[in-house]
Amino acid sequence: MIETDICVIGAGSGGLSVAAGAAQMGARTVLIEGHEMGGDCLNYGCVPSKALLAAAKAAAAHRRPFPGVAADQPEVDFSAAKDHVARVIAAIAPHDSQERFEGFGVQVIRDWARFTGPNEVEAGGQRIRARRFVIATGSRPLIPPIPGLAETPYLTNETIFAQKKPPGHLLIIGGGPIGLEMAQAHRRLGAMVTVIEGARALGHEDPEAAALVIARLKSEGVEILEGVTVRRVGGRAGAIEIEVAGGTILVGTHLLVATGRAPALERLNLDAAGIRHDARGIATDEGLRSSNRRVYAIGDAAGRGQFTHLAGYHAGLVVRSAVLGLRAKVRTDHIPRVTYTAPELAQVGLTEAEARGQYGARLTVLRHDFAAADRAQAEAETLGFLKVMSVGARPVGATICGTGAGEQIALWSLILANRMKLNALAATVLPYPTMAELSKRAAGTYFSPKLFDNALIKRVVRAVQRWVP
């Protein structure tokens, strides 16, 4: 029997943050991981996908015409690009390693955990009893019940990065962020790509922004079929067939299933600990505690969103509550998300449609095209726009679609997280020329009518000019 203060189940980004914080603050800490240290983000998600997208971006840069610079056809070595992905994972892995966390004083057990009671789990042939548990087991690919899929070779985000040979024609079921990121990356690296989406591609995003992304992918040769239902999947490695509604047969060499993710909770025996859960994840209160007050759930396991940075945010709240005994309350209105296609699509807070539904006529939408930014003109990257949703002078959401949108959304994440008003940004001096000026310009747009179209202001100015020496 191991007696401990904090037992963290899952060594992804959220679990690692809790374990490191708890141990370094003096709590006895056990960390249990049955698979890879670093979790999905390091091994199968954020890190490898962005590394592959970087290789694809380099290939696309050769093909892009620019004034004074001739475009050419790059020589793409798909296997070498995948080697780059592996090197990036290897370079980051020590930060998430067992050895590093043992150096913090964390006891690491490499096995799957299973609850045997409300305050006890077993793993690695040992029983662990803890004052507090943190479930940070992440999520797994959600595989839809498509006839024939189980008998057909297919890839998910957990297996596609190990493929060293380029697919001749990659078929992708799912037009969400993962599906479209992988579609563009593989197209730019030489593969034919077809995406099949049953509803609208990037259906959770601002429609205007999603349309820009989809149009760019189509212009690069990605076939995107929206509103198309998959009826059946069949074939063998190198010869995959997908039958869609209407009887059309799509043929490709490889199949990627990117239809979403489900919380990875199956092994935990949650019922033995009295932990309520469903297909969306573990039910938690505003402090991320489950129905068992000893047990917290964070990240994908908590069913509140599937982002690495969200898991990190949850981890900070749990350290505050479980380790320091302070009150913690989760928020959702300031969590950003980015689809890392080209152009990028970034969102924080409410979309325009969500804000209109919530605030109606009280809403002001401040919109500027990238073409209005001098930096965008200089770099010939004028495709895109910024849209800020504001109620009075308080922003409630921001949408950015264009080059570097993921970096630019950070400013609006700061503003929403700290509940700042537009005047804080309007009063900020930004370097020229930068894309960030577009955000300041949007803030200034809100105040311009109040200054320049105000009869009282004009009378005051005329009086000042006449009477003040």
Could you characterize what this model shows?
The chain is of the alpha/beta class and 469 residues long. The protein has three domains: 2-37 and 97-141 and 262-323, FAD/NAD(P)-binding domain, CATH 3.50.50; 149-259, 3-Layer(bba) Sandwich (FAD/NAD(P)-binding domain); 336-452, 2-Layer Sandwich (Enolase-like, domain 1). It has helices at 13-24, 39-43, 46-63, 78-92, 98-103, 177-188, 207-219, 308-323, 352-359, 374-378, 405-417, 422-426, 437-452, 455-467; strands at residues 2-9, 29-32, 107-109, 114-117, 120-123, 126-135, 139-141, 169-173, 192-197, 223-226, 230-236, 239-244, 249-252, 254-257, 261-263, 277-278, 281-282, 295-297, 336-339, 344-349, 363-369, 384-391, 394-402. Strands 1, 2, 3, 4, 5, 6 and 18 form a seven-stranded mixed beta sheet that branches. A five-stranded antiparallel beta sheet has the order 19-20-23-22-21, sandwiched between helices. Strand 8, helix 6 and strand 9 form a beta-alpha-beta unit. It is globular, with a radius of gyration of 25 Å.
